[in-house]
Amino acid sequence: MEYQGKNAFITGAASGIGFAIAEAFANRGTNILLADIDAEALEAAKKALSPHGVHLDTYECDVAKPENLQKAADYMTDTFGHIHFLVNNAGVGLSGAVGTIDTEDWRWIVDINLLAVTLGCEIFLPRMQAHGESGYIINTASMAGHLGAPEMPPYVATKFAVVGYSESLRGQLLDSTIGVSVLCPGWVNTNIHTTQAGSPSRNRAGAPPAAPSPDDIARFKEMEAVIRSGLAPEKLARWVLECIDQNRFYIFSAPEMRGFLQERAQQIDEDYAACDTWFANSSSDTP
């Protein structure tokens, strides 16, 4: 894949995985439009990347709003020209027990983690196809897109959906010049655990935020410790570009979690075997 002089659009680019991927692209000479909802952090990211000598610009963008993504695409086309790389990376976390999760919080995480990915592709892909040059799409999911972690049903649901959507998208683009990968990292040292503070239920006008319970505080500290011990985003980003070069679809980053995927595959195999047996034995039954 060619990087030098190509143009990339990255959401959630002001920090964490998005910023690290932007830096990896800049190291290879790619021009970048950095998109994020945090304008101040965007400017800091641009300043940090400026020594690479590539064309950098920023776009304050709430990916939950389709009109923001449309305007960002228009701006990039006008400012950069052709779009070669699309990285749908912006995301938030949300945990909670089923039966206690606010409906507006569900809509919030679905809008950001799932619909922003699909809308990014709907809006940017036709522009990438129009110029006829090679391109690549990265959709950020998670290992939670393969494993149903019980602590965070909304997050798991959105990430499973991103994996499935990306599989479908890849199938549509197999015979094209545009590649697709779905990024499924394990624990990465980012601030994803703090994003739940932005959920609607925590920010309702006129409603003072509920004080966290001792259990909430303990869970947060436990989660923070695990995340802080996670993979450095910079190392993950280098691996992402290696996978682009290899046209690798699933981008995993946690060798220690492979066993969980194997257990899931074994469970599926066992349950399918039960299905095979039941239907074989009932083949002569009356429908």
TrEMBL record:
<dbReference type="Pfam" id="PF00106">
    <property type="entry name" value="adh_short"/>
</dbReference>
<dbReference type="InterPro" id="IPR036291">
    <property type="entry name" value="NAD(P)-bd_dom_sf"/>
</dbReference>
<protein>
    <submittedName>
        <fullName>Short-chain dehydrogenase</fullName>
    </submittedName>
</protein>
<dbReference type="InterPro" id="IPR002347">
    <property type="entry name" value="SDR_fam"/>
</dbReference>
<dbReference type="InterPro" id="IPR020904">
    <property type="entry name" value="Sc_DH/Rdtase_CS"/>
</dbReference>
<keyword id="KW-0521">NADP</keyword>
<dbReference type="GO" id="GO:0016491">
    <property type="term" value="F:oxidoreductase activity"/>
</dbReference>
<comment type="similarity">
    <text>Belongs to the short-chain dehydrogenases/reductases (SDR) family.</text>
</comment>
<keyword id="KW-0560">Oxidoreductase</keyword>
<feature type="compositionally biased region" description="Low complexity">
    <location>
        <begin position="199"/>
        <end position="208"/>
    </location>
</feature>
<feature type="region of interest" description="Disordered">
    <location>
        <begin position="194"/>
        <end position="215"/>
    </location>
</feature>
